[in-house]
């Protein structure tokens, strides 16, 4: 995997200590682990969670639409966004560049929405440096056999692309230990339950509850 990504010096250190009312969830996984299906199901169930739509230099696949799965941009447009400091993180994944708009995230978590990012491990670690409270979730497949079978079933990629994704999967999974939570996507409904549980637990944190229900805390004389 090409390791190009945004230098950490480009990050805004002030953001790391900011205390936004919304939560930031970052989900990473090797291709085929079921990350997109899980996130899609969560979004359908929970209107408070919003998906961050990344920019990418790769071409659209299948039914993908500009502005829905990704903002599809040229190399020149991507370069211009880097130069303008528009990305909170970006990385080169499978030979294409992908980046997350800083403004889109900040505006939404500042307004109290929860934002979820589906990005690779390099981006996830950059997000943690920029947003110290980000919750990093790694999704694992139950086995190599199942991962290969899911990539083949998807039927969207050429055989050489599938081979590249499998080679990259080992490197992606080698970073799972740097994440806060791991979900093993063996049975979809169970994995979705786990994802919902993580989101729910985050909303029960002391600071979140105090912000949501200040009247109860003051009536109980709790600071
Ligand atoms: P795909 O081309 O299959 O949609 O995505 C390939 C990989 O790029 C996936 O691991 C996906 O999570 C990652 N990716 C998508 N958007 C971003 C992004 O904005 N930043 C980073 N670092 N990775 C991304």
TrEMBL record:
It comes from the Bacteria. One of its GO terms (cellular component) is cytosol. Its main location: cytoplasm. One of its GO terms (molecular function) is GMP kinase activity. InterPro entries: GK/Ca_channel_bsu (IPR008145), Guanylate_kin-like_dom (IPR008144), Guanylate_kinase (IPR017665), Guanylate_kinase_CS (IPR020590), P-loop_NTPase (IPR027417). Its EC number is 2.7.4.8. Keywords: ATP-binding, Cytoplasm, Kinase, Nucleotide-binding, Transferase. ATP binds at residues 29-36. Belongs to the guanylate kinase family. Essential for recycling GMP and indirectly, cGMP. This is Guanylate kinase. It comes from Tibeticola sediminis.
């Amino acid at each position: 995997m090409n390791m190009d990504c945004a230098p950490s010096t480009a990050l805004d250190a002030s953001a790391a200590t900011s205390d936004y009312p919304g939560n930031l969830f970052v989900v990473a996984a090797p291709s085929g682990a079921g990350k997109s299906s899980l996130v899609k199901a969560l979004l359908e169930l929970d209107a408070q969670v919003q998906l961050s739509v990344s920019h990418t230099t790769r071409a659209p696949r299948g039914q993908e639409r500009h502005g829905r799965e990704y903002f599809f941009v040229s190399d020149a447009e991507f370069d211009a966004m880097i130069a303008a400091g528009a990305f909170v993180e970006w990385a080169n994944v499978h030979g294409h560049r992908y980046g997350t708009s800083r403004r889109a995230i900040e505006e939404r978590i500042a307004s109290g929405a929860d934002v979820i990012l589906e990005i690779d491990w390099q981006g996830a670690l950059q997000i943690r440096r920029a947003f110290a409270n980000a919750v990093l979730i790694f999704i694992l497949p139950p086995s190599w056999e199942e991962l290969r079978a899911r990539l083949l079933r998807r039927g969207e990629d050429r055989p050489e692309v599938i081979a590249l994704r499998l080679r990259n999967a080992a490197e992606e999974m080698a970073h799972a230990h740097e994440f806060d939570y791991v979900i093993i996507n063996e049975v979809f409904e169970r994995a979705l339950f786990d994802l919902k549980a993580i989101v729910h637990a985050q909303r029960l944190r002391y600071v979140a509850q105090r912000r949501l229900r200040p009247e109860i805390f003051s009536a109980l004389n709790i600071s």
